[in-house]
Amino acid sequence: MINILIVDDQKHIRDGLQAMLRQFPLQLDSIYCAISGIEALQILRQHSIQLVITDIMMPDMDGLALMAQSKEERIQVDFLIISGYSDFAYAQKAIELGAKGYLLKPVKREDLQTAIEHAWQEVNTRQALSRNMEHISRRARETDRKELCMFMQGSVSDEAWVLQTQQQNPELWRHYRLCLLREELWINQAGASSSHSMESIAYSVYSRQGCICLQHRPYLILAVEASIDTGALPTALKAGQMDAITAMTGPQQGLKGLPGSYTQVLELYRHSYLFPDQRCILPTHTERLEQQWEIPYEELYALFHLIGTKNNSAITQGISKIFHKDALQRYHIRYTQQLCRAIVQMLEEYVRVIRPYMGDEVLDIECLRNLFDYPGIREYIQALQQQLLRLNQFYYEYKCSYRNTQDLNEAIRFIHESYHKPLDLAMVSNHVSLNYAYFSNLFKKNIGKGFAEYLRDVRLDKARRLLAETDYKIVEVAAMVGYESYKSFTRAFRDVMDMQPTEYRQLMRRKLEREGKYQDTAL
Predict the structure, then answer these.
(1) Which UniProt keywords apply (predicted)?
(2) pLDDT at res. 398
């Protein structure tokens, strides 16, 4: 696509040229018109024009003056000159200024088309060459940046490379800071990275000569001119509505110090978690932090002793106390990291105990291992609190389950021991010190049948053994297994076995006789 500007002080010529251009088999984007060189210059400054068709003789500013001024302002555009004068001096001057053609009025359609096609071919060739050169230049810059990034991160480079690279931007490497920028995002927040937007803002503050991008991910890292005030970039980011954390090293000298500066800027960034209200972290924020400490295990044990009590408010208060900013901001960031690791280890111990009872439910302990996976310390503490409260609920249910199992085991033991006595649900629930209704529901939920049905089955199981193995009378067997009357026993027996107790005894004795005869025959 090509944009063309027609410049002529006569309207009928402008209209005629427009009409002819639109009939040519060319991919034209836009056709602009101007009545003078002054107006044409304004259009050239405001729009991307590839070709100008201009008259030579015009009031205020003629075509040759327009060409000269465009060249002086370094406006990249090609010119075709048209004139009613066949004076070679005009053509010669136009060619000296870079005109791609010289046409006499009245302009012939064929001549104009030929001149336009030649100019169009030159434009295409130049644009393709420009794109190729830009691509080559961009790849070269990217290669240089990657080499610098690798050197910054500790890759070994020879002395010659260091000196050569330093000479490419000697002013910057003589006096620079390393700057890390990380846009503050919520976990899983959608949206593309804004590192290129932040990079553009940095260039506006330091200029292209005073700023070099070394890394885009996971953080934007720049080498910037150290003489610029440290507050300039954070202020520009805020004005550009970029909510970013900035970490800046002190002034550095020489490219050799770049790896050390990289270690320092990462350390400064990690300390930004201790100062969530500070948008720009400098060495002055960390130089007084204590390097020796003791992890508050007593407070941690006290916190975990609350697990299973269902006291959520006390757990929340315990977390807030352990992670209070006054405590964290006394020490190097490693203290906070060790504190996080200690809590994760305790979480793992508790989960190991109750995992068999959790079913499909799980705690996401993995999400708590790395503090720096979160936008800030506040978000990490929220995630920690959420997992501790979930553990509290699981552990409470586990303790209830364990306690209920003990109570049920004791209740069943008591039933098997006392089945021959008058026995009811109230007596058993009192024996294990549980509420009547609660024990009834608990019993049925865990045993699979109600208390009365379970007691009947225990008594009848004992009765069947007595009927098969002894000669006690039916009324005696009924009393021995806890039934108050012969009638209630026989009714219960018939309902379960679908026969009378006497029938069952006869059936079992015939069975024993058959088994005895079989054994005699076998012998």
Answers:
(1) Cytoplasm, DNA-binding, Phosphoprotein, Transcription, Transcription regulation, Two-component regulatory system
(2) 67
∠ CA 212-217-222, nearest 5°, is 20
What does the block give as tokens for 319? 């977390």
pLDDT of residue 187: 43
Q: Which residues contact 213 (CB under 8 A, 6 or more apart)?
A: 145, 199, 202, 220, 221, 222
What pLDDT shows up at residue 343? 93
Q: 165: buried, middle or exposed (CB in 10 Å: 19+, 13-18, 0-12)?
A: middle
Phi-psi region of 498 (alpha: psi -120 to 50; beta: other; left: phi over 0): left
Pairing of strands 28-34, 2-7: parallel
pLDDT at residue number 357: 59
Q: Which residues pair with 79 in a beta bridge?
A: 52
In the chain, the N- to C-terminal Cα span, in Å, equals: 112
Give the model's pLDDT for residue 133: 65
d(CA 481, CA 467): 11
Do the Cβ atoms of 281 and 271 come closer than 8 Å?
yes
Q: Which of 47, 66, 50, 40 is nearest to 3 (CA)?
A: 50
**Which tokens belong to 199?**
């990079």
CB 195 within 8 A of CB 142: no
CA distance 169 to 172: 6
205: closest CA among 226, 233, 186, 176? 233
Tell me the one-letter amino acid at 75: I
- Sequence-distant (6+) residues with CB within 8 A of 218 are 182
Report the pLDDT value the prediction gives residue 252, as an integer from 0 to 100: 94
| Token duo for residue 146 | 């990657």
DSSP of 361-423: -----GGGS-GGGSSSHHHHHHHHHHHHHHHHHHHHHHHHHHHHHHHHHHHHHHHHHHTTS--
- What residues does 7 pair with on adjacent strands? 34, 54
CA dist 443 and 432 (Å) reads: 12
Cα dist from 324 to 184, 284, 320, whole Å: 22, 22, 6
Q: Reduced to 3 states, what is the DSSP secondary structure of residue 113?
A: helix
> How many angstroms separate the CA atoms of 466 and 459, rounded?
11
Q: Is residue 1 exposed (0-12), middle (13-18) or buried (19+ Cβ within 10 Å)?
A: exposed
Q: How far is CA 499 from CA 132, 457, 493, in A?
A: 101, 15, 7
Low-confidence ranges of the chain (pLDDT < 70): 85-88, 91, 130, 132-143, 184-193, 355-361, 398-404, 515-523
Q: Which pair of structure tokens corresponds to residue 322?
A: 């352990």
**Which pTM does this prediction carry?**
0.54
The residues, any chain, with a CB within 8 Å of residue 385's CB and separated by 6 or more, are 315, 316, 319
CA distance 391 to 309: 11
